[in-house]
Design a protein that fits this description.
Length: about 280
């Protein structure tokens, strides 16, 4: 007769395998607009772990994701755009979800945010272009997410904003030409920012505000009013970031140079005036 512990372990293994098989059998690929006319309708009808492929075109929607789904454009952000139907709401909102993905969309027209992730973990935001929103990508109380190869450019306030969000990876994103800040971390710890390009923002390129133990490596933060701004933050590690051409560095150099030139000119004028 088998020991009781062995029987319990065996039954648990069988249940786990059965659940995996059922999940894999149910996982499906759904096409918009072939199977459903709107992305939101496809999201509502989909089962967890399904993939939604969105055909090229312009869609006007606010999409709320409340289950682990992959939502992917068929031909990338230059061919597939989603504009906010209700500008007061995010275009995409991932709410209390683990392991969702938003891949390859142009996202625009929200007075809130293009992609809003709240209380969610292990999500993948990849290859999107976000412009004309209040905030491009906004993470709120969301940990262990990955943002890769997104362009959060020309938004009204901030390209990428993390609030109380930890252990996220921001890699090879652009946050350019935003009307306030490029990348802003507020009360967000242990995040990794690597090889991001942050150009021509009206104020700060990258801001760490009450944010600790973050890793910033190989980021290009140039031609902003201020480069990397750190306030009330400790234990952050900055390595090989390019910040030379920001105004806050250039301006003192220009002032010093101007002062030297004025001194030389004044010296020559006085020499001419007082030469006997």
């Amino acid at each position: 007769m088998m020991p009781r512990k062995f029987v319990i372990v065996f039954i648990c293994a069988i249940v786990l395998i059965a659940e995996t098989v059922v999940t894999s059998l149910h996982a499906a690929v759904i096409h918009v607009p072939d199977n459903y006319k709107t992305i939101q309708e496809a999201v509502e009808k989909a089962l967890p772990k399904d993939t939604i492929i969105v055909k090229e075109g312009a869609y006007k929607e606010n999409i709320v994701v409340t289950k682990p789904l992959t939502i992917k454009s068929s031909k990338g952000p230059d061919a597939t755009s989603v504009q906010a139907y209700n500008p007061a709401k995010p275009v995409f909102k991932i709410d209390n979800v683990n392991e969702a993905a938003i891949i390859g969309f142009k996202v625009t027209g929200s007075a809130a945010s293009g992609i809003h992730i709240i209380n969610s973990q292990y999500n993948d935001i990849n290859g999107n272009k976000l412009s004309g929103n209040e905030i491009g990508i906004f993470l709120l109380s969301s940990n262990n997410n990955t943002l890769t190869n997104n362009q959060a450019d020309s938004n009204e306030l901030i390209g990428i904003y993390l609030e109380r969000s930890n252990n996220n990876i921001l890699k090879e994103n652009n946050a350019d030409k935003n009307n306030d800040k490029g990348i802003f971390l507020s009360s967000s710890n242990n995040n990794t920012l690597i090889k991001n390009s942050v150009y021509l923002n009206a104020w700060n390129g990258i801001t760490l505000w009450s944010s600790h133990s973050n890793e910033l490596q190989d980021n290009n933060v140039v031609r902003n009013t201020y480069g990397i701004v750190i306030s009330d933050s400790e234990g952050n590690n900055l390595t090989d970031n390019s910040t030379w051409a920001n105004v806050n560095i250039i301006m003192p150099i220009l002032l010093i140079y101007t002062g030297i030139m004025l001194y030389i000119i004044e010296k020559k004028i006085f020499a001419m005036l007082y030469t006997e």
